[in-house]
Amino acid sequence: xxxxxxxxxxxxxxxxxxxxxxxxxxxxxxxxxxxxxxxxxxxxxxxxxxxxxxxxxxxxxxxxxxxxxxxxxxxxxxxxxxxxxxxxxxxxxxxxxxxxxxxxxxxxxxxxxxxxxxxxxxxxxxxxxxxxxxxxxxxxxxxxxxxxxxxxxxxxxxxxxxxxxxxxxxxxxxxxxxxxxxxxxxxxxxxxxxxxxxxxxxxxxxxxxxxxxxxxxxxxxxxxxxxxxxxxxxx
Length: 235
Hints:
Blueprint: E1 3-12, E2 15-25, E3 30-34, H1 41-48, E4 55-60, E5 63-64, H2 70-76, E6 78-81, H3 93-99, H4 107-120, H5 122-126, H6 137-149, E7 155-159, H7 167-182, E8 186-190, H8 194-200, E9 203-208, E10 211-217, H9 218-222, H10 225-230
Parallel strand pairs: 3-8, 3-9, 6-7, 7-8
Antiparallel strand pairs: 1-2, 1-4, 4-5, 9-10
């Protein structure tokens, strides 16, 4: 097992944000986190990347993460692509991608991963010298995912990768996410577009009010009447 969460609880002051979360991810899986705004999706990813404290079981490759800082977690193999992208807007595409590899020392492996990013997102190769703030929202999202990949993750955390992106680019990004997983990187993806997420995911968890309300295979949840009505707008 790659990631194990057990009875995981987190709070903002006195307000409980996550309560007794049970979640598992195996190597090479793509797992979606679904739920309405305020359900705890982003908080869950922040807890895993150690941007937020928590209580309960939080293990990566059998090792507790509670004593680790955010930077140390990156070194272990967890890279977080946050909501809103948080790029360096006045730097070039290339500089942003290179910053994702700041902890790595093997330059040949870094070059290999840069080639991988450009194969996933060819437009970034064409625009590698362009200032990021001049790119479209979808292209900026590609840079953000690419930067996270440059950290050489075993587990990639994606927070709302499709928000505010034109449909065509959104479909390109979801296809690339599936390719990344097929290439051996496990992915935990929080996503509002439940239909697209379930189309590419292996499994999914549904959060409501900071707790897991439902879980199962992506195909099973996509045909579940309650999920279809509430999250897919069908039925």
